[in-house]
Amino acid sequence: MSAGEAALDAPVRLVPFTGDREADELMNDLDGHPHAFVFGCLVDRQVPAERAWMVPTLVRRRLGTFEFADLAELSEGQWMAVMREPFPAHRLPETMATVLYRGTQRIAGIFDLALWDIGRTVCRPRNPRCPECRLKDLCMEVLRGDHRSTPRCAPSGTSSPGRRRLPGRLCPADHRHDVLGHLLWGA
């Protein structure tokens, strides 16, 4: 308990995501650019984490801005160009361009601490409370009619490519039973 209290009382320090000072400062700017962290999470697939966490900084350098309102105005084609040129910002530039485009479109106007609270209290990895969620009309799982009171999983012993082991179950690796996952990972 005392270790936790000491950590909370300690001065805020820069979390080193990439080793690049500019990128780390952007990733740590939760007050001014919380979407940088979200974007880093979204593109943290099939590349080293440090490279994924660099993507928001590369986007800012290429566009000259990282204000969310500016990013939300980009078309999917513009996202493709940003992710491809002058060199690919990610191993999967087209896929990640689509992910970032969809993400900005879906969270425009609703991204705030209330969203994080819903993810923490209602839209949980285990025992999500979908009927209680204020955002169920935006939820990809609910819209597909595929939500459950527990995450979609196959019984242990079932094997399939792209699945990962959870205690006693195997779950699709792309399943994200959390509020950001539901809102951002469209069909």
Can you tell me the residue ranges where pLDDT is under 50 for at least 5 consecutive residues? 149-179
Largest sheet: 3 strands, antiparallel
Q: Using the CA coordinates, give the radius of gyration.
A: 18 Å
Mean pLDDT: 76
Q: How far apart are the first and last residues' alpha carbons, in Å?
A: 43 Å
Question: How would you explain this protein's 3D organization?
Answer:
With 187 residues, the chain is mainly alpha-helical. The protein has two domains: 2-107, no CATH class; 124-184, no CATH class. It has helices at residues 2-9, 21-28, 34-42, 49-63, 68-72, 76-84, 93-107, 113-121, 140-143, 179-184; strands spanning 154-155, 163-166, 169-172. A hairpin with a 2-residue loop joins β2 and β3. The termini are far apart.
Task: Please write out the topology.
Layout: H1 2-9, H2 21-28, H3 34-42, H4 49-63, H5 68-72, H6 76-84, H7 93-107, H8 113-121, H9 140-143, E1 154-155, E2 163-166, E3 169-172, H10 179-184
Antiparallel strand pairs: 1-3, 2-3
Helix pairs in contact: 2-4, 3-4, 6-7
